[in-house]
Batch of 2 targets.
Target 1
Amino acid sequence: MKRVARRLLMLIVAMVAAFAVTVAMAAWLAGGTGNGYAKADAAKALTTSPVSGSAITSGLLYPGGTGDVKLTINNPNPYPVEVTSIAQTPSSTITASGGSGTCTTTGVSFTDQTGNWVVPANGSQTVTLSGAAAMSNSSDDGCQGALFTIPVTLTGHSGS
């Protein structure tokens, strides 16, 4: 009986081993190479929004003096942008509105600015440029109380 049990046990062990080898051979390994793809977005242009004249309460212009320039920078990109320069747009004209009379000769000039103004992703940032505008003595008398529009060009790069 021991002999039969031993043979039966050996037969069972052999069958289990054969089954394990068959299963192992049936599970083939596979590998390979290929490419994955990602696409870069294109940067969208920054814009500015008008700032209400009543929001500019300090650094006001007068003949022979300097004043502050205030602007809101809008960033439509899904990442922050660091603006590094704000310059008057070449060949542009500074215009006036809402003065006490005719303000054809504004006498206003803008000093280009450099700095680091971070505008959040899909957001905006209001910036005050202290003393960036100057008014000459040639300004028309009707420029008193006027709001001056200064076309600017913004330069920057993606921020962190």
Note: Residues 2-26 form the longest helix (25 residues).
Target 2
Amino acid sequence: MIPVVIANEILERIRSEIDVPHEQIGLLIGELSDNHLVVNDAISGTSSATRSLSIFSSEILAEVADDILNGRINGRIIGWYHSHLGSGVFMSSIDIETHSRLLQFSNDVIAMVMDSVANQFGIFIYDAQSGGLVQLPEEYISIV
């Protein structure tokens, strides 16, 4: 498993975005550095949402990709985040399907799930041994 480093200010920004009555979704921007995934930024991408589903805007994704290619965003897409509203920290079947789309670019892509009601979060990553997603143990997550 690869350790993840995330700045507290990024975590707090995501928390403030998801404190709404419907699910939120966004991208995690960063880099692989010294065998750690370092999250440098988060970009909200919700285009439509309900209490239990959030859809990422394809226009925002295209804009982010263009910004990365043209140097306006420093780093690459290293994962995504979304909220659950009081249902816990887990990956639903829809979440797993969404994550599998990002795995085509890298096996080191992470998924962050935040339960805004319980004020908890977890990070999930692909595990080659099991062939599926596993939640990173707390000792693999550094908040700086």
Note: The first helix runs from residue 8 to 17.
